[in-house]
């Protein structure tokens, strides 16, 4: 099924075109639906535009991180217990963040991109990461400070 | 486990020298006022000064007067071997180190039960602390004190204690000490008087709860005694403290060391401004108001994001993603999140976050009010775990029944282990309302007369798992439940007592429950070769625990039949079954291809050739318990140790505690 020599062209919202191997692109659920609906095969045609998959909601900066994630996913040894697999994915996500000096905004954009591109593993790792941060906050005030949320009046009685 | 520990009431006197009257013991200690064992307790001056000490209080150390509750014990209640009652009074064996029946021992050790076919998944696992509690014991002492030290006398495999709680006179539980993972690393293979540094506190208590975690234990841990040291409170102070309880509650927030959030959790009175259906409100909010709300909160559109360098914040994420994030939070953080802002209140109260609900990790906070609040949110409840909650009256049976009636009809999993608030009418409600239950766990429900009687649960017909560990029930009810629940896969009847005839149960299982995968009959009575033979009709069996059953009975070829017909057996516990012959052991080797855990403790006819046989043929074996197989010579143990390494099998033998 996977053709390592085959690449897919993907264009991000800011106009950058990435050449992504089909194997990596297959990790994104969005690729499947696009391939099915738009194209029949991967023949090169004269009209290059039709071969390029548009990613209108993802910027190049975020997409680079997404690709880092997908590449890291490929290097995981396949047969793992679900618990260990989750731990490993969280570790990989952590690395991804530290390597790119990601701030909160980047993390959220990454989560939104994972949702848009339909990459379940990245979405899970990202949302779990944010949940861990929340779990680490000791009080309501700490949560508000950490995420810059405005206090909009008393909620409890 | 020692074979001196017969299940009957007639114990030979030589096995124990437990002091029969702890009260006299304690008074004697007070009179003597001198240091006892290493570390001892604080001396209190002479009797002449006792009068002034009555005014000011004095230091004392006291041993357990009685046991209020325990989640698990190895022995059976009417025995004095390896039961929770052994923790009462002075230590009898300490400082000796070894496997003694005069101590308190729990039923499990290590991870073996989590690896067995009968293992369950935790409900709402994110609520668990990093060192979760597996078992607990609640003990009380004679005098109220302000605690300064709690000493636990461990006489075998120390290192199981992870938490110490104290119940103050203001009816709050305080955690006096909690283990960090590093605490469990360097534990000596020797008896010890374990007295960890307690939190500084002013609470007054005479009731303690000790939490245990077994996962790092090599074998059973055993507790000889527990001592509570502290300063007594003079009578006049006690009156002052007990009288204006209302006022004192204001201070107990600090005393019990709980912050405002936990106080909030205790006094939850969430009352949304609208009385309408929460789910509908959220739906409307998301459809109509959310975009406006987000706009008001300065969320930029796609175009602006590209042009400006403004950051995205948490509130910019779509609701489904926020819901996903919140679904990973433990219950405490979830409630906290709900107080952050109106948006998060609405999301945090979404019913999808309350499909799996467990208050087990918050047992000390769970009360009727919390149940009431949760009832409003948990409209899609499927799995509920209220284990350990409401032990001191914090949850009323009425509130529980109301909760069940509102939310129980779609419930698939219900765990009510060690729930002291349960009464007969609660169980009846379970039977009537929760007819979709696949799993029902009612461990440690030993009331007299038993709560499980007549036909209170006969309405349940979809059960796949029924856990009645350490719970009394009427035979008729069980038999009728077996007949109705043909899909039953896991059944735990450990410690069910003398009133249940296991042969009858076995015959019923063979007729109605042939899908059975795991069966625990630990210390069952009246199981004979005939019963064992019936069990061979349950050909899907993967786990069978017959420990301390069929003590002297001859098996005939019933074990052979079982092994032949149940090739899927992975876990087989035959502890103290003296009727096992050498032929049986040969059959185990030839037929037990899938065996992973094998307990042959106390089998007398075992030779090391048979052990070798089993090790060679049972290639998947991971655990082999050979303790108290007195047939082995000392030199055999060295050989067995070699085999343990060679075949990569964890072999337990009675020599463990002799080697340092």
TrEMBL record, chain A:
One of its GO terms (molecular function) is kinase activity. InterPro entries: SKP1, SKP1-like, SKP1-like_dim_sf, SKP1/BTB/POZ_sf. Keywords: Kinase, Transferase, Ubl conjugation pathway. It comes from the Eukaryota. Pathway: Protein modification; protein ubiquitination. GO terms for biological process: protein ubiquitination; ubiquitin-dependent protein catabolic process. The keyword Kinase applies. Belongs to the SKP1 family. This is S-phase kinase-associated protein 1. It comes from Drosophila hydei (Fruit fly).
UniProtKB/TrEMBL annotation, chain B:
InterPro entries: F-box-like_dom_sf, F-box_dom, Leu-rich_rpt_Cys-con_subtyp, LRR_dom_sf. GO terms for biological process: SCF-dependent proteasomal ubiquitin-dependent protein catabolic process. GO terms for cellular component: SCF ubiquitin ligase complex. The keyword Zinc does not apply. Residues 311-357 form the F-box domain. The keyword Protease does not apply. Keywords: Ubl conjugation pathway. PANTHER family: F-BOX_LRR-REPEAT PROTEIN 4, PARTNER OF PAIRED, ISOFORM B-RELATED. This is F-box/LRR-repeat protein 4. It comes from Drosophila hydei. The lineage of its organism: Eukaryota, Metazoa, Ecdysozoa, Arthropoda, Hexapoda. The gene is LOC111596549.
């Amino acid at each position: 099924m996977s053709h390592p020599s085959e690449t897919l062209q993907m264009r991000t919202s800011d106009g950058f075109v990435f050449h992504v191997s089909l194997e990596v692109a297959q990790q994104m659920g969005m690729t499947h639906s696009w391939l099915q609906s738009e194209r029949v095969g991967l023949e090169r045609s004269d009209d290059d535009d039709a071969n390029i998959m548009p990613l209108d909601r993802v910027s190049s900066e975020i997409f680079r991180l997404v690709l880092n994630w997908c590449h890291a996913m490929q290097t995981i040894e396949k047969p793992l217990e679900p618990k260990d697999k989750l731990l490993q994915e969280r570790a990989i996500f952590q690395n991804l963040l530290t390597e790119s000096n990601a701030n909160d905004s980047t993390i959220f954009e990454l989560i939104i991109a994972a949702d848009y591109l339909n990459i379940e593993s990245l979405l899970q790792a990202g949302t779990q990461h944010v949940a861990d941060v929340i779990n680490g906050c000791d009080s309501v005030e700490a949560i508000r400070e950490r995420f810059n949320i405005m206090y909009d009046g008393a909620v409890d009685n | 486990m020692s074979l001196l520990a017969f299940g009957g009431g007639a114990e030979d006197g030589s096995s124990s020298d437990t002091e029969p009257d702890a009260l006299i013991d304690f008074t004697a200690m007070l009179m003597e006022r001198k240091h006892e064992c290493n570390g001892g307790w604080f001396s209190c001056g002479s009797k002449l000064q006792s009068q002034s000490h009555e005014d000011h209080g004095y230091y004392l150390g006291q041993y357990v007067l009685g046991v209020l509750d325990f989640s698990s014990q190895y022995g059976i209640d009417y025995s004095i071997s390896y039961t929770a009652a052994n923790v009462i009074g002075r230590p009898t064996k300490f400082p000796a180190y070894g496997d003694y029946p005069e101590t308190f021992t729990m039923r499990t050790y290590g991870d073996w039960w989590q690896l067995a076919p009968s293992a369950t998944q935790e409900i709402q696992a994110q609520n668990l602390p990093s060192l979760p509690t597996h078992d607990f014991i609640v003990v009380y002492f004679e005098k109220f004190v302000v605690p300064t030290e709690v000493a636990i006398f461990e006489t075998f495999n120390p290192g199981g204690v992870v938490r110490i709680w104290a119940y103050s006179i203001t009816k709050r539980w305080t955690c006096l000490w909690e283990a960090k993972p590093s605490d469990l690393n360097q534990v000596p293979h020797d008896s010890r008087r374990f007295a960890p540094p307690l939190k500084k506190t002013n609470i007054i208590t005479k009731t303690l709860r000790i939490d245990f975690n077994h996962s790092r234990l090599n074998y059973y841990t055993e507790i000889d005694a527990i001592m509570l040291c502290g300063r007594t409170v003079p009578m006049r102070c006690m009156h002052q403290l007990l009288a204006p309880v209302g006022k004192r509650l204001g201070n107990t927030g600090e005393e019990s060391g709980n912050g405002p959030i936990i106080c909030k959790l205790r006094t939850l009175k969430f009352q949304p401004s609208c009385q309408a259906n929460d789910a509908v409100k959220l739906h409307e909010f998301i459809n109509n108001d959310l975009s406006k709300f987000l706009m008001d909160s300065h969320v930029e559109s796609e175009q602006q994001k590209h042009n400006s360098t403004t950051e995205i914040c948490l509130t910019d994420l779509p609701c489904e993603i926020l819901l996903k994030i919140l679904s990973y939070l433990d219950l405490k953080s979830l409630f906290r999140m709900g107080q952050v802002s109106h948006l998060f209140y609405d999301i945090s109260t979404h019913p999808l976050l309350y499909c799996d609900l467990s208050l087990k990790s918050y047992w000390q906070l769970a009360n009727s009010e919390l149940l009431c609040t949760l009832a409003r949110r948990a409209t899609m409840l499927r799995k509920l775990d209220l284990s350990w909650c409401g032990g001191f009256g914090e949850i009323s049976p009425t509130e529980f029944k109301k909760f069940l009636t509102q939310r129980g009809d779609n419930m698939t999993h219900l765990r009510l282990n060690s729930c002291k608030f349960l009464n007969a009418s609660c169980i009846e409600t379970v039977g009537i309302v929760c007819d979709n239950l696949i799993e029902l766990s009612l461990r440690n429900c030993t009331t007299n007369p038993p709560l499980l009687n007549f036909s209170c649960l006969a309405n349940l017909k979809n059960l796949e798992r029924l856990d009645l560990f350490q719970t009394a029930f009427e035979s008729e009810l069980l038999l009728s439940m077996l007949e109705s629940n043909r899909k039953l896969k896991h059944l735990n009847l450990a410690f069910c007592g003398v009133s249940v005839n296991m042969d009858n149960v076995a015959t019923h299982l063979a007729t109605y429950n042939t899908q059975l995968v795991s069966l625990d009959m630990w210390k069952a009575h009246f199981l004979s070769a005939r019963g064992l033979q019936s069990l061979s009709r349950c050909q899907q069996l993967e786990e069978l625990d017959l420990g301390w059953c069929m003590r002297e009975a001859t098996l005939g070829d019933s074990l052979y039949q079982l092994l032949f017909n149940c090739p899927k057996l992975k876990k087989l516990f035959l502890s103290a079954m003296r009727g096992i012959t050498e032929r049986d052991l040969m059959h185990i080797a030839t037929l037990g291809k899938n065996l992973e855990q094998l307990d042959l403790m106390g089998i007398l006819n075992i030779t090391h050739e048979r052990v070798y046989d089993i090790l060679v043929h049972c290639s998947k074996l991971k655990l082999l318990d050979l303790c108290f197989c007195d047939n082995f010579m000392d030199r055999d143990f060295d050989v067995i140790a070699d085999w343990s390494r060679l075949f990569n099998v964890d072999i337990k033998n009675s020599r463990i505690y002799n080697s340092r």
